[in-house]
């Protein structure tokens, strides 16, 4: 590590002010930033700790509208009883993230802002048609995720919450890397008032994406059997030491079927 100035923000307004210092970076759970700093992949001059900003915390379910503060931990998402009734698939997703240490420190806002191509939450927000709320504006999930580790966030913007309408049905399944537990392929399916949306994480060359062939098949029949014979193109999928593009294409179909089964059983 190296010398860095640490600041503890007490409010969103305070954090925005502190982020103007040098090459400052916001720090939430630190699950990505701290390891990056240790390996010198990131070298911010200042760290602005958001973990004590109370206005960023908490889960609210009002009718069908769900709002989750950006500073809410994965463990809190996985444990919230009201959220479990409104969207059990998201609770299940959060319970699969990392290990207990990661779930107790990592936050939904930090994960979404980082937009790791194998992270779980981006697929959920994209499939749910969620809105990402910042200190400056509201951004639809379809326009928020721009590519590998890229988002629509601008300098001085902090995610304050995510909000979405609870779906009629939803499910999430992933094929996990046994060491990191990141998704080699993860699929979130959601059926709501605007139809069926399906988002895939861990597989795309450009990060999280919606699967139009699977959406079209499930729009006709929201059953796992509707996906029999549906082919997912491998041309835009990644290949690495964990899985080839062709294998990921196969896994997308398998995980989508399992997610639909889970959604119908909830």
Automatic annotation (TrEMBL):
SMART domains, A to Z: CO_deh_flav_C
Keywords: FAD, Flavoprotein, Oxidoreductase
Domain of life assignment: Bacteria
InterPro entries cross-referenced by the UniProt entry: CO_DH_flav_C, CO_DH_flav_C_dom_sf, Diverse_Substr_Oxidored, FAD-bd_PCMH, FAD-bd_PCMH-like_sf, FAD-bd_PCMH_sub1, FAD-bd_PCMH_sub2, Mopterin_DH_FAD-bd
GO molecular function: FAD binding; oxidoreductase activity
Residues of the FAD-binding PCMH-type domain: 1-169
Gene3D superfamilies: 3.30.465.10, CO dehydrogenase flavoprotein, C-terminal domain, Uridine Diphospho-n-acetylenolpyruvylglucosamine Reductase, domain 2
Protein name, as recorded: Carbon monoxide dehydrogenase
Organism: Manganibacter manganicus
